[in-house]
Design goal:
Elements (H helix, E strand, L loop, with lengths): L33 H6 L8 H10 L2 H4 L27 H9 L1 H4 L14 H16 L11 H13 L2 H5 L24 H9 L17 H13 L14 H13 L2 H4 L3 E2 L2 E2 L35 H15 L11 H11 L7 E2 L2 E2 L29 H4 L2 H10 L16 H4 L2 H8 L14 H12 L28 H4 L2 H9 L1 H4 L24 H12 L17 E2 L6 E7 L3 E8 L4 E6 L4 E7 L3 E2 L17 E5 L6 E3 L18 E7 L5 E7 L2 E10 L11 E9 L7 E8 L2 E5 L2 E4 L3 E6 L5 E5 L2 E8 L3 E9 L1
Antiparallel strand pairs: 1-2, 3-4, 5-10, 6-7, 7-8, 8-9, 9-11, 12-17, 13-14, 14-15, 15-16, 16-23, 17-22, 18-19, 19-20, 20-23, 21-22
Helix pairs in contact: 2-13, 4-6, 6-11, 7-10, 9-10, 14-18, 19-23, 21-23
């Protein structure tokens, strides 16, 4: 049975440039491996996983041979290719870097190969290597231009560079995923850095530095900014290559271990290293490179800190226990986890609760549509992504990157199929495809697609108000183009997602138009949810050939509820960015704040004018259209109190851990909002009501029915029915709240009227496994 080692995932950061002093409170004097710093640096005990991370990211296995097939290719990291390096890097930088890599570029993983040599021999070796490397190309210099610098600064802070390397000029002490690259102006020219940014895989094929698919102009502008970001761009230097030194340098390159890591052609073949190092399984953890200062010139010096040395020791000891005929076997989840960390996917994405944007870098993820919130600027979580994306799309996005979210300025990078192509099979093996049996239809496929087109249009679910369609922009926010939907996601995932979007992407603005699998359209395809969703899928499956949905591009007039309520999910003034407006045929309306889990607004007569949101970009908040707008108190309506005298908390229900579960519709399509906290389940229903004596048919009011259920009777749980500077009891269950509102309560236990601070509050205790509170509201 092959031996198995649990490899904790490995992380390296993308190689993009910023001023190191802007990113670290202290200049690092050891090789910076962000994955180690994030997951292992503060561990109480060193472990083999941390050691294996360093063995790969410090490229130990380039010198210390691992038998073929004993370690996956995706675990390997190739050093930069040095063909033509003389045309990319300044000779003065090569000299400083070879003499002392850590001083020239603090945090580098490049070891000092010459540290133990006598000073005179070290200088001779460095100079010979500089001449040899400089002989591979001609270095051309230019100065940064002001116009390009300004454009490059914007690109750097928007497309994803800052996600891995932090923003320029800001000290991010807590960002452990940030990788410093030193003073780029001392290293590159505008031309050489531009070429590198446009195609980083050409010289760094292992993909740790991915391509952000910059065109030449974008790469050039970014290069101008990065070089101008330093205090001074070095003047052009005159360097004369000495042929005799080139010959010596070529020999040193082969004998000193350079060729063990770096490819550099001599003629048509790469230079072969003549340095022979023991196999990895033969290493002794107490000697060689791992010790603080190797005693002989044959060992490179990595400037490891104590935690790194301890981790490498643990990794080498664990590796030595693997037999000559066994290797590492990784299951799909471990393979995914390991690859995500090695390629720094966790710097932007979460998967199964791990990783994600660090708090200190969060604000640098930006969007063109702020009104969409985090969903528009933070890259999506990748939990279950193997069961979500189609095989073809998953393969494409891993190999080429993607730009399907027009509102998200952070780009999905291109890592290359050779580096991450194995993830497709691993993700599909790890993530099950949701179940979604194919429904049976009694109508033709043409009719099915016609029904799908109808539902997508503005008369039913109005998907076109948030999603682009072909070349047509949506009337509101610019969501993912619907014509590529079936190319991107699996049919089964699409079906389940439409029934419960929040389950698959918590916090999404995508509404559940089939809440809990219930159809709102009893006359469409037999009122069957599965048939209706399949109809939408088949219509969208025609892609760009699909007929344009009804109502696309047309401005909408004020919304009027006729026989059944209208539900309007958008930005409503006074109800937040996740407002759910409901207009009833009785000419009474409400807005529910799905962020704070509360009714925010009540008003009479006209419902709302949708033209602001359903034309152009749909920016801003739309106020209610009608009259008598009543703004209800902010803050939570439910709270645990230590006693009935305890102050009412200010944190919202969401901040206290409550989860919005969407809404269900009754037979008249009236919504009941649902939310939970652990075992507590809340059903919150508002009904139009015209009962006497406080209201008439001409002035309808609401009856709120709040039902709380729990397996066990809750303790110290209260409902706040009202809060105002003045509350007066009127008798028969009625109360006057301020000047404009009257309420009547039906409760299992008498409410408590109290004064708390500068206001009065009307509280209702919640007891038993089920509590039903009825509250009429007249204004």
């Amino acid at each position: 049975m092959p031996a198995r080692i649990c490899l904790v995932p490995m992380l390296t950061a993308f190689a993009w440039a910023v001023n190191i002093s802007a990113l670290h409170a202290q200049t690092p004097n050891h090789p910076v491996v962000p994955g180690f710093d994030r997951f292992f640096a503060k561990a109480k005990e060193a472990n083999a996983g941390a050691g294996h991370l360093l063995l790969v990211e410090l490229n130990c296995i380039a010198c210390h041979n691992v038998p073929a097939g004993k370690i996956g290719d995706d675990l390997k990291k190739q050093a930069p290719i040095l063909d033509g390096v003389g045309g990319r890097v300044r000779p003065s930088y090569l000299r400083a870097f070879l003499h002392d890599p850590q001083s020239a570029k603090p945090g580098t993983t490049m070891p000092n190969l010459l540290a133990a040599l006598p000073k005179e021999k070290r200088g001779e070796s460095v100079e010979a290597l500089v001449h040899f490397l400089a002989s591979t190309g001609s270095f051309l210099d230019t100065q940064p231009a002001a116009k390009a610098i300004a454009k490059g600064k914007i690109l750097f802070h928007q497309v994803g560079c800052a996600a891995c390397h932090g923003p320029h000029g800001i000290d991010l002490k807590d960002a452990v995923t940030v990788l410093p690259l030193g003073d780029l102006a001392k290293k590159y020219s505008i031309v050489s850095l531009t070429n590198f940014l446009q195609d980083p895989h050409k010289t760094r094929p292992s993909g740790r530095m991915p391509s952000l698919n910059l065109n030449y102009g974008e790469a050039q502008d970014t290069a101008h900014f990065l070089l101008a970001a330093h205090a001074e761009v070095p003047p052009a230097e005159a360097f004369q290559v000495d042929s005799g030194m080139v010959t010596k340098g070529r020999a040193f390159f082969a004998s000193m271990g350079c060729a063990s890591c770096h490819n550099l052609k001599n003629g048509n073949a790469n230079i072969v290293s003549t340095l022979k190092a023991p196999d990895l399984v033969e290493l002794k953890a107490s000697a060689g490179c791992i010790v603080g200062k190797p005693s002989t010139g044959k060992f490179p010096r990595y400037s490891l800190n104590a935690a790194q040395r301890a981790a490498l020791t643990a990794g080498i000891l664990a590796w030595s226990k693997i037999s000559a005929t066994s290797g590492l076997r990784l299951d799909a989840r471990l393979n995914i986890d390991q690859t995500f960390t090695a390629f720094n996917c966790y710097a932007c994405h979460q998967r199964e609760g791990k990783g994600g944007v660090e708090a200190s870098l969060n604000e640098f993820f930006v969007t063109t549509q702020k009104e969409m919130g985090d969903e528009a600027r933070i890259p999506p979580h990748l939990s279950g992504v193997g069961g979500k994306l189609t095989s073809a799309y998953l393969k494409k996005v891993l190999a080429e990157g993607a730009a399907d979210r027009p509102y998200m300025l952070t780009r999905m990078p291109k890592f290359g199929p050779a580096n991450v192509g194995h993830l497709q099979a691993a993700l599909e093996a790890a993530d099950p495809v949701p179940a979604a049996p194919m429904p049976t239809f009694k109508v033709s496929d043409k009719t099915i697609k016609a029904q799908g087109r109808q539902m997508v249009g503005n008369k039913v679910f109005a998907c076109i108000k948030c999603h682009n369609f072909r070349e047509f922009k949506s009337g509101g926010v610019q969501g993912i183009n619907m014509t590529i939907m079936t190319d991107r996601v699996r049919r089964e995932w699409f079906t389940q997602y439409l029934m419960d979007p929040n389950k698959y992407r918590p916090g999404t603005r995508m509404p559940a138009v089939w809440p809990l699998g219930q159809s709102q359209l009893p006359k469409v395809l037999e009122g069957d949810t599965a048939q209706q969703i399949e109809a939408v899928w088949r219509y969208l499956a025609d892609g760009p050939r699909a007929a344009v949905p009804y109502g696309l591009g047309k401005e909408l007039m004020p919304l009027v509820a006729q026989e059944t309520p209208l539900i309007y999910r958008n930005f409503i003034e006074g109800a937040g960015t996740r407002a759910i407006g409901v207009g009833y045929p009785e000419k009474i309306n409400l807005a529910f704040d799905a962020n704070d889990l509360r009714y925010a607004l009540l008003w009479h007569k006209d419902f709302i004018d949708a033209s602001r949101h359903w034309t152009n970009r749909g920016e801003g908040f739309q106020p209610p259209l009608g009259e008598g707008v009543l703004r209800l108190p902010s803050g939570p309506t439910i709270a645990h109190l230590a006693s009935k005298e305890a102050p009412w908390p200010t944190k919202t229900l969401k901040e206290k851990g409550y989860q919005f579960r969407g809404y269900i519709l009754d037979d008249k399509l009236r919504p009941t909002f649902q939310y939970t906290l652990g075992p507590l389940h809340f059903d919150d229903l508002m009904l139009p009501f015209s009962g006497e004596p406080q209201a008439t048919a001409e002035a309808p009011h609401f009856q709120r029915i709040l039902t709380i259920c729990s397996e066990n009777a809750p303790e110290n749980l209260w409902y706040r029915a009202a809060a105002d500077a003045q509350i007066k009891e009127l008798g028969k269950g009625w109360y006057a709240i301020g000047k404009d509102l009257k309420i009547r309560l039906e409760t299992p236990e008498p409410p408590v009227l109290r004064t708390s601070g500068s206001q009065m509050e009307l509280l209702v205790p919640i007891r038993g496994k089920q509590t039903r509170i009825v509250q009429e509201m007249v204004w």
